[in-house]
């Protein structure tokens, strides 16, 4: 019997696992997909919000500000990209000023540091590509951008290194209360555990409602995004938001940690928890709305579009803790924006609850740091030459757009919880994420995966499950 | 640091022909840098025939055509490096490259010939909505899988875009046992060569739907189907015209983009129309001694013209290195594309530097029937050639001679245009 089973390997689950791994505990993460970071965590704005949006006093506000504070040190400890670039909320008219002021006041109440309302001239001096119609803006210097994939992967790898088990392709189908804990029925057999952490993203209501009469309801709130080429990456230097509405923070324009420009999201409530398809209307809305705050957006530079699902709970609040009528079941539900920002604090909170309930002791041998995949671009010329001499695979470029070497791809596959699919390699290394969108490198990455995993090319998938990339050999049906 | 007279970036058809020409014109010190594991470039995966009709007066497959140039390069003992990625070229023509054996290394060149070719436009560039499952390939990626690896990307295929690679892959996939259901083309005309429509679609009964596009992609893990719709004159889908096609594969043949990241990095001036460098009559960019040819300059339909153009670039690079170029006393003439002509290569001519003959290549922006291709020397119409049809999918050319240009001593602009009959 496990002490703890965490359902879901997204940022909430992985952060909880990593914090829990500080203690002497037998714990396991069950993930229905073939990798961590496959749901909400992989398709979002990749922002570390400053924390002025959430209602003062709410859990969201508290964890947002705390998560933002923790992010910088965490990014150093776990070696993932994070940049504190600041953000601007754009106000287009005098009539909107009370809204901007309210945001400022909330930020102050939430303990956000460095907030400032800037006038038109100050905004345009900071960001020359902001619309000429700008009236004022709320500047938040503590806002940042993060690589959501490597944040999630780093947390999971570090948790794994510290003894947390991970089981992939393992979908929880039913949860049953048993003596002293729960029994989880999955497609890979039955697991027993004293405690359950429900970090199942858009499915968290389903699992919660299996054990509690106090029902919760999560709506998948779809957000469509467009990603622009690196040639557009410096169009703005900070994250540019609209004034928020009841559906969220509106369409933003932001540089990414990899130097692209990200534009989105929409906010469309849907039924289908797997409905990550973009729509024409959604993409058109992104383009129109982004143009309201930022001028001359080079939308011809779009290299891909995607949609993510926010796990919106009816109460618009994080639900973290034990329902009154389900002892031993720890919810980590309704984790929508600012969930990514908050995840370090969510992990801390969840682990804190478990530590107290289980009376867990700290480990002596907790490894607090993790080294990411080496990016040869960060090396000096001499260091890079030495690296290639030592490991020639670092001299072999596989992804020409992002200049990713075979060495990096091998590292992505061979490391703990390594990549098993094309998307797994992509999320870890960026191979295939560039302007040609894997047209050139996908057959080459498939070859490396096949060689390393000792399977045939026909077994390589895009993202696990039925997502095979080839279906057979030439003339095999003739 | 090693020194070479001419460094050629890319060992595909353009790079090979440039190298062969440079060597034959008397330069010994030449280096080709090729990122793939063999010379020949994309021709190696183009196993269909139809190459070389102009150059060799016979029909060759892509690999055969490439081999002719590889053999010449080897016979001429032209130096080359394989599996070598050029990371950066400085304005002073220092090339930084990388491979497994030598690591990172620098080469100083007197002249650089850019011959990096092009890449395919991706789904992302079209912003097609829907899911993002496995089974969506650019036509060239599918071509590599089928022709080089012997692997079938899928069984039931829809192709978006009627570029030549898409048309070729419609036939290829059919011959390998797949069912190609339809080719959809956004424009009211095909983007490919007429002969490919006939030989790759008509001969196999594959329908071509002009003015159609993909408006939705279904299937979360593997592609399950696409929705096609007719588009209006502005390219917008017309509601009510949607048709569902079940398929496990969508191939995209929606355009090629010259691969000019290195050129941009070194400060080469680019054309907004071709996405290739702006060049003069010598195929020389705004940086002296840096030349461009082949698909990196502008996307070609036929490799024969790539070879011819690259040969010219090689020869001109030699003249530059040897310091044999006339630079004084020539007239500077602009080439001006107008009335249906989208661009010209080159964009300027210096009569002192130019050879006796100059081929000006261009593309038109729409289909024109029973028209004239005309060239005006300032206001005077000098060339007026009747054409039954000109189309965006087929590159056009006019020939200018030095003798002809010198007859107009005050000539400023040559305007190339399409005139209706």
From TrEMBL, chain A:
Residues 3-351 form the FAD dependent oxidoreductase domain. SUPFAM superfamilies: FAD/NAD(P)-binding domain. PANTHER family: GLYCEROL 3-PHOSPHATE OXIDASE (PTHR42720:SF1), GLYCEROL-3-PHOSPHATE DEHYDROGENASE (PTHR42720). Residues 397-451 form the BFD-like [2Fe-2S]-binding domain. This is NAD(P)/FAD-dependent oxidoreductase. It holds the Pfam family DAO.
TrEMBL record, chain B:
One of its GO terms (molecular function) is oxidoreductase activity. The keyword Lipid metabolism does not apply. Residues 4-298 form the FAD/NAD(P)-binding domain. SUPFAM superfamilies: FAD/NAD(P)-binding domain. Pfam families: Pyr_redox_2. InterPro entries: FAD/NAD-bd_sf, FAD/NAD-binding_dom, Metab_Enz_Cyan_OpOx_G3PDH. Keywords: Oxidoreductase. The keyword Ribonucleoprotein does not apply. This is FAD-binding protein. It comes from Mediterraneibacter catenae.
